[in-house]
């Protein structure tokens, strides 16, 4: 196996959405360390980010025109921007459902539509999903949007593959960000209980995977979905059953009887 080369994204132009803070900022920093020319964008830009409302087709068109003029090509897109809404099935309003989808699904769609024409063979798109996209998570608008993003990613991988453009999805679990900090403490505690590694994750544990998927080391990987969740989705929801039947609990630790 070859050793990854330092600055393995040298010369590549990469756009990252939702890059002003949290996970997006960590991804942008990791990409820059590897030599990429990072175009960090956010709906609430700071000094290091360009303004971009991912739900605005006009914003994407302006960004694409600027990129074409400034660089000619784009080699990577990280659709990281996202919002949540924790209303349950009986309480979610259509307006909130649509708003979440506009950011989490339409935003990546517009990004792909406007930037893929600037991408040469060997380029890479990474969509940031969630373990909500792999489960029946209770915030219905957020969960439905992330499942839809999975479908968009699969379709884009199929459509863009003949052009040599790869599309993959990463699914973070409970990562310490502003979004998760706004949740109730019980939400955090329940996630930790269901995570086999027994802790939350950090943005710096997601960013290296994004770097890898944008690099030439992932040149034959497309249409993949990779959880970064400490094993949260690996047990299919039965970790609590396993925990309840550990040694010392009733009915566990006995010699199996033949049927």
UniProtKB/TrEMBL annotation:
Domain of life of the organism encoding this protein: Bacteria
Entry annotated with the keyword Oxidoreductase: yes
Pfam families hit by this protein: adh_short_C2 (PF13561)
Molecular function via GO: oxidoreductase activity, acting on the CH-OH group of donors, NAD or NADP as acceptor
Annotated InterPro entries: NAD(P)-bd_dom_sf, SDR_fam
UniProt keywords, alphabetically: Oxidoreductase
Region feature (Disordered): 239-259
Protein family: Belongs to the short-chain dehydrogenases/reductases (SDR) family.
UniProt-recorded name of the protein: 3-oxoacyl-ACP reductase
Organism encoding this protein: Streptomyces phaeofaciens
Gene of this entry: fabG
């Amino acid at each position: 196996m070859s050793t990854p080369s330092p600055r393995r994204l040298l010369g590549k132009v990469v756009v990252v959405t939702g890059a002003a803070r949290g996970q997006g900022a960590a991804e942008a920093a990791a990409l820059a360390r590897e030599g990429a020319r990072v175009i960090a964008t956010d709906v609430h830009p700071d000094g290091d980010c360009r303004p971009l409302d991912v739900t605005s087709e006009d914003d994407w068109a302006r960004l694409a025109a600027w990129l074409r003029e400034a660089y000619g090509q784009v080699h990577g897109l990280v659709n990281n921007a996202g919002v949540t809404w924790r209303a349950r099935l009986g309480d979610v309003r259509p307006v909130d459902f649509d708003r979440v989808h506009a950011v989490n699904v339409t935003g990546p769609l517009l990004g792909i539509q406007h930037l893929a024409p600037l991408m040469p063979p060997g380029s890479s798109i990474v969509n940031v999903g969630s373990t909500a996209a792999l489960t029946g998570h209770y915030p219905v608008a957020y969960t439905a949007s992330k499942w839809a993003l999975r479908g968009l990613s699969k379709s884009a991988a199929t459509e863009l593959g003949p052009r040599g453009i790869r599309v993959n999805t990463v699914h973070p679990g409970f990562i310490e960000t502003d979004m998760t900090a706004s949740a109730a403490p019980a939400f955090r505690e329940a996630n930790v209980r269901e995570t086999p590694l027994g802790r939350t994750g950090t943005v710096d544990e997601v960013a290296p995977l994004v770097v890898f998927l944008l690099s030439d080391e992932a040149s034959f990987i497309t249409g993949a979905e990779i959880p970064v969740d400490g094993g949260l989705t690996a047990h299919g929801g039965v970790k609590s059953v396993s925990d309840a039947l550990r040694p010392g609990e009733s009915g566990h630790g006995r010699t199996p009887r033949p049927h």
